Amino acid sequence: MEIDWNAIDRKWQKKWLENNDHETDSNNKEKKFITVAYPYPNSPQHIGHGRTYTITDVHSRYLRMKGFNVLFPMGFHYTGTPILGMSKRVEAGDTEIIDGLKNIYNVPDEAIKTFVEPIKIANYFHQEIKEGMIEMGYSIDWRREFTTIDPAYQKFIEWQINTLKEKNLIIQGSHPVGWCPKDQNPVSQHDTMGDVEPGFTEYILIKFSFDGYIIPTATLRPETLFGVTNLWVNPKTSYKKISVDGEKWIVSAECARKLEFLDRKITYDGEISGSELVGKEITLPHRNEKIPMLEASFVESQTGTGLVMSVPAHAPFDYQALVDFKKNQPPGLELQLIKPISIIETEGYGEIPAKEAVEKLGIKDQNDPKLEEATEEIYGKEFYGGILKQNTEQFAGKKVSEAKDSIKEWLAEKKYSDILLELTNSPVRCRCGAECVVKILTNQWFLNYGDKDWKEKATKCLDGMSILPQHIRPEFNYVIGWLHERACARQHGLGTKLPWNKEWIVESLSDSVIYMAYYIIAKFVNAGVISAEKLSKEFFDYVFLGIGSSDVSGVPKDIVEEIRAEFSYFYPVDSRHSGRDLVPNHLTFFVLNHVAIFPENNWPQQIVVNGSVLMDGKKMSKSMGNIIPLREAVRKYGADPIRLTILISAELLQDADFNVEAIKGIKNKLASMYEDCTKTKAEKFPELEPEDKWIHGILQNLVLNAGKSMDEIRLREALHHILFDFDSELQWYLKRTKSKQRTNISGILHKILSYRVLMLSPFAPHIAEEMWEKLGHSGLVSQSSWPSVSDVIDPNAIQSEELLKGIMDDIANILKVTKITPNKITIYTADSFKLKAYHFILEKVMAGQTNMGSIMKELIANPETADIKKNPDFVQKTIKDILSVPTEIRKTKLATKEFDEKSLISKELISLAKSDFGVDLQVYSENDSGIYDPKGKARHARPFKPAILIE
RNA sequence: GCGGGAGUCGCCCAGCCUGGUCAAAGGCGCAGGGCUUAGGACCCUGUCUCUUAGGAGUUCGUGGGUUCAAAUCCCACCUCCCGCACCA
Fold it and tell me: Motif 'KMSKS' region at which residues (predicted)?
């Protein structure tokens, strides 16, 4: 059947709109406040974004059907720098970005022209995204929409940030960042050429003294100071004499420049060439001992300070340089006597690990690239497995991994060392072309996420929350653990200014943490009830925290009370949805900021995290050209098929795979269900036959299982229940009724179908409405109740059908193996003493007793079942039978002692056998007189496993 | 390195917490049949190996262990994925 998906989408979206179906105000019903991370409008939404929002929508729709008053609002996050960067690139005529906008996102030329203004980009994609959300059928209350640069929102953020500052959770300090010296701006991944993240490490500078100067050398292994034998100098480098905060240093020119950005006061006093330094002696910082400076070509002026401290026993570079050096020296000279000093004992290595590594890898000279590998090996092994030797003074006997920090502290305390921050992946170039550096930003504002009390409170909140899926929970705990000060303001981009320092703008991950509360305000602002300038500290304090009174200047008291009431009704947030990439930042900040600002009764209740979407098994990316904008997909396939395809391919946290085949499958499934709806009429129920009772039981189970899955947002599983799991059961039912030539089941089928449509409706809201209408129901399915389980499931009905199915399977099996064409089938049911034995064994098994020998003994001891000894195989097989049956069914079997197999089979199985195998079937109990049993099969009969003879 | 997660019958992916419903669901693919002018869609049957009586054998990353019983619990190992910050 051809279905015009787009027409159906529009039809029902219009109906919902006419009914104001998704507008939610406070009322006397129980509420659920469902939120999802709002989008950043720098591109249209693609299928991947669609997943998070679709899950949230399904969640909201489900809860509505469960009878809750559900609020599902949406806002738009304009704050941030990427839009600014985009705008700059468009202005510069960057073809890469312009082509992308045109070809992937189909943005018209006229619109692109306006993109030189950042706000135009945000506005354009804002509308684009919103349209897409409407077209996807999201049940959003649009009256509460806002952007983060609305004046009223900015008032809200000012209040938030002021409140945090009052609580001393915002502090000032310095912080290293990747920095473009030309733009005078921090750089992050999307500001650099090739999108590289500027990474940096902290080197320890060990300060050696020389002739009134300090010669610092950079190292990542301060503990090796005890094994220093000399310094390495590159004779070809011209070094600078500089003064650093009053101290006189000798370093390379590159190093001097790096120091300038690290908030050090530098003046240049002169130069000294490397060759001049070679051969001179310097003094160790920690004891009065002199070592020489020697020449080495591997020393690079751009790395560290341009001078290297040599630890030949433990650093392969140093070891090899020493070997090279000695080759060029006349024998017998004093310098030939320099010997590596071993200071670390490591299992698997001897006195001089560096030597072993160098020799193992066959390294030829100090310019051999394999030295990197050797260094990595030794560093790793010594760090994790090494123990410091006696010659390391107070640190002797400690593990390297443990001693390192205390050595660092000791060096700093004694002023033997300093710090140098350096890019690890240099050169990093800014998009403007300039080479980036590490800069220490001073006077930076931080949220003090390192605060112990704050962490404790957040952990408490988290412990009380539902986190779905559960196994992501440890990740939240981990993040709270390692979080420390986090910059909360930057100098560029759209956003709200810091109230106390207007040069700074509140950073985008800090102005998006408690905005769910603002949805309450937004409705009143949008309706013109209250305006931005009236939103004072007193107002927010009262509305959100209940502090002060409703006497707020400029706002009528009853309005303030109304807003406060609505806030009190909807808060706390019942569920927050987002993609998993926001776990280590937004979602955790969301918890932290809530516990900082709101009282415990308004702490969030739940977080639901989902994975991303792949296209044909591959990651979506611009370069692959496999990004499908959501709206394009909706036009092509319809909203519901997309919603289902995204949801059905993976459980919450897994990556979902989106592909055309999958959509096709879903479309077909929905189409055939739709067709059924057009054909099935509501009729009166007949008197219920066994299979009717059975299918009702199955339906109850379906509702139960689907509901359980929905409650845990296991949407994939729920969809499977609703769409597929029921099919094989329904098939059996149809087979049964058909073989009995029944014509009175339409009413039952109609009920089943109605239930399935109800449960489908949160997932595929449009087609479900259409199906609902076709089934002849009045009203909207989206406003109906989720089906409830009321009927008691008849255990006898379940058992009967299981038995019939089992026999049919057995017959089919025998026919398959023997390949005979049946003429006549005879069934033999077990004798009553076997049933008694069966129940005895069942009880034993249920009590955990499965030992064959003791069961046997007890059976023989009982005269009622003593006959069992003629047939010892029976016990063995029966135990197996029982174990291969679900615990649920075991219980029902235990509950129903009387079960007349023979009459059931003769009533119900004959017609089935006739229609399936085309033969007549006769039934005997194994002890019947006049039994027809030419092959002696009857004695093999077991309860629920009758013997079969096929001729 | 730290932290989190995963390895299942051609593919995707359930099951594992709470051992026996497990030769292991479902979807896709493939094979046969039905329907159809044909194709598509849809429906049925089959899809580890062996088997002329409903059975048996070998499987759930690898190797051990616990148990009457292990995909499921314990230990060790191998492989893969993700996050580690000033960025939405």
Answer: 619-623
Q: Where in chain A is the domain with CATH 3.90.740.10?
A: 200-423
Residues of each annotated binding site of A for ATP? 622
- Condensed to tens digits (0 to 9), the pLDDT of residues A654-677 reads 878 787 778 888 888 888 888 889
Task: Find the mean pLDDT for residues A12-32.
Answer: 94
One-letter identity of residue A510: S
d(CA A383, CA A461): 38
Farthest CA pair distance, chain A: 122
Task: Give the domain A200-423 fold.
Answer: Isoleucyl-tRNA Synthetase; domain 2 (3.90.740)
| 3-class secondary structure per residue, A271-326 | EEEHHHHCCCEEECCCCCCEEEEEECCCCCCCCCCCEEEECCCCCHHHHHHHHHHH
With CA of A810 and C1' of each nucleotide, the nearest comes out as B54
For A307, phi then psi, to 5°, come to -130, 145
CA of A84 to C1' of B84 (A): 27
| pLDDT single digits (tens) A672-694 | 888 889 888 888 888 988 889 88
A105-119, A582-596, A801-815, A845-859: least confident range: A845-859
Q: What is the pTM of this model?
A: 0.84
CB contact burial A543-569 (16+ within 10 A = b; e otherwise): bbeeeeebebeebeeebbebbbebbeb
Q: Which nucleotides of B are covered by protein (CB under 7 A)?
A: 1, 3-6, 12-15, 20-21, 23, 25-29, 41-46, 51-54, 68, 82-88
At A850, list the tokens: 């499965």
Question: CA A662, C1' B31: Å apart?
Answer: 22
In the structure, how far is the CA atom of residue A79 from the C1' atom of nucleotide B13, in angstroms? 39
Rounded percentage of chain A residues whose pLDDT exceeds 70: 96
